[in-house]
Amino acid sequence: MDPTYWYLFPVAILIAATANGAGVGGxxxxxxxxILGLRLEPTVAIGTALITEVFGFASGVIGHARAGTxxxxxxxxxxxxxxxxxxxxxxxxxxxxxxxxxxxxxxGLIAIALVFVRHHDPDTEDAxxxxxxxxxAPSIQRRLVASDDRVYEYRLCRPGEGRAFAGVGGxxxxxxxxxxxxxxxxxxxxxxxxxxxxxxAVSVTVVAVTALAAxxxxxxxxxTGDETPFDQIISIITFTIPGVIIGxxxxxxxxxxxxxxxxxxxxxxxxxxxxxxxxxxVALG
Length: 285
Prior knowledge:
Structural class: mainly alpha
Strand content: under 5%
Shape: globular
Number of helices: 11
Distance between the termini: 29 Å
Number of domains: 1
Radius of gyration: 18 Å
């Protein structure tokens, strides 16, 4: 083990707390960090980021489960599509050129950032629905009682559309390690306006299961490769895994204390910066 990676421990705590609090994949941060900061090959960086994310989101799932905010029916519905798509994406990633993966990652981060930065105006959307602009779609009425006795009643709208977003997001998780949490957030929060606390808990759980499937697939790909830097990977995850386990427990506290719009927009601008650095690295490399 190389102790020079010690700084990844506090970094991992911060990333996991932010990711679990916003319901986005921690690998969204870790993959660019490993590519740009540690100079890992994209496929290795993506696989290592997913392995790290699994532990962070598993910790986050425990925290959200204790809070009683996970809607397991929605989790099962989305995971059934996202998991096989993630496995397919992981297999495709092993065949893609490094430059192509970096370009897809940069473009994906920009798309995610634009969704997060875009202003969400519920009053305008309500007016559009009242005027008949929004087509009425099938929905599922849900009711959830959290551990602190808060009652959440909401409508799971457009379940078919939600599955489609989960499928695309799962494919992106396997391919570039990110996209599912962001796709879920868009479908659950912006489209259906499910309470943020519940939507984040669902998204974290779905991403955890999907990242596990994708990371196992990537690890199998590692095992068959001749030049995989296993010593470096072990040194990295020795510090990142304990960090994300701690950060995962802080995520539910983050989402309960920080206003949704502030958190979402801050992440959006951060993703834009990371995307610009990733694409610049491709252009200069």
